[in-house]
């Protein structure tokens, strides 16, 4: 029977790559995002069986109703990949304290709400369900201007560890990827002089997530896995 994954942030660069890699490997894919669905959205272009835009995942009610709709459409839930998130670079002196709240909402709270919403449905028992979060390699030691972002990604990493312990008896694994700089159009625009070939490609991250979602990874939980290309 085809396995079902919900990918949050599914219209973004990494989210799309995750949807594509899971689809190519026989999964049924649902995408959720705050961004509106692309104008030209169709199943082939999005590599998804179902999708919904305009979902504010920091809001628990919105997350729960979107997750319920995904399960109703696709029949069950085997894995959730929490890709939704965002980045701001800002010093404390020149920045706004609101950025700290924004980063918390975008990165920690979206992962917590989507995971909580998924707990009612995730497969447990012999096969076990899967949650994969996206932390950041940069959160292992913050650089200048990176306080709000890395604090929030550290929160994602601690959420991953705590939830992994909480869900051990349900055989649901919870792990996080810690990407380095990803080769995205936005990063190419922001850092035009960088050597893009050293950055990790979205598909390389998606392949590790696919492994974590597979039966072969049943023994891995609470892991924070750097996937950094040649950074
Ligand atoms: N790019 C990098 O170099 C890098 C490095 C390390 C970690 N990461 C992490 O990897 C993930 C994906 O990055 P990406 O480059 O693919 O980003 P992206 O293209 O901006 O995609 C992220 C998606 O998440 C959505 N989103 C943000 N806040 C949301 C919310 N509250 N509710 C629902 N959806 C929300 C965004 O919608 P809107 O566009 O409407 O906000 C966007 O569609 C993020 O968690 C990011 O922090 C990225």
Automatic annotation (TrEMBL):
GO terms under biological process: fatty acid elongation
An annotated Gene Ontology molecular function: oxidoreductase activity, acting on the CH-OH group of donors, NAD or NADP as acceptor
Ketoreductase domain boundaries: 3-184
Domain of life: Bacteria
InterPro entries (UniProt xref): KR_dom, NAD(P)-bd_dom_sf, Sc_DH/Rdtase_CS, SDR_fam
One Pfam family in the UniProt entry: adh_short
Family: Belongs to the short-chain dehydrogenases/reductases (SDR) family.
UniProt xrefs under PANTHER family: BLL7886 PROTEIN, SHORT-CHAIN DEHYDROGENASES/REDUCTASES FAMILY MEMBER
Name of the protein in question: NAD(P)-dependent dehydrogenase, short-chain alcohol dehydrogenase family
Species: Paraburkholderia diazotrophica
């Amino acid at each position: 029977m085809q396995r079902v994954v919900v990918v949050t942030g599914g219209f973004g660069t990494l989210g799309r790559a995750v949807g594509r890699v899971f689809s190519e490997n026989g999964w049924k894919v649902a995408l959720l995002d705050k961004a509106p669905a692309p104008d030209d959205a169709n199943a082939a272009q999005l590599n998804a069986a179902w999708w919904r835009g305009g979902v504010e995942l920091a809001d628990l009610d919105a997350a729960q109703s979107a997750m319920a709709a995904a399960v109703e459409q696709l029949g069950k839930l085997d894995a959730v990949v929490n890709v939704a998130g965002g980045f701001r670079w800002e010093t404390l002196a020149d920045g706004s304290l609101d950025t700290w709240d924004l980063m918390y909402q975008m990165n920690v709270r979206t992962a917590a709400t989507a995971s909580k919403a998924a707990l009612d449905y995730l497969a447990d028992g012999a096969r076990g369900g899967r949650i994969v979060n996206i932390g950041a390699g940069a959160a292992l030691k913050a650089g200048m201007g990176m306080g709000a972002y890395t604090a929030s990604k550290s929160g994602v990493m601690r959420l991953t560890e705590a939830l992994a312990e909480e869900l051990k008896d349900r055989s649901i694994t919870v792990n996080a990827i810690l990407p380095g700089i990803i080769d995205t159009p936005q990063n190419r625009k922001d850092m035009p002089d960088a050597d893009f070939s050293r950055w990790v490609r979205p598909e390389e991250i998606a392949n590790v997530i696919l492994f974590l979602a597979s039966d072969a990874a049943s023994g891995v939980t609470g892991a924070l896995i750097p996937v950094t290309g040649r950074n």
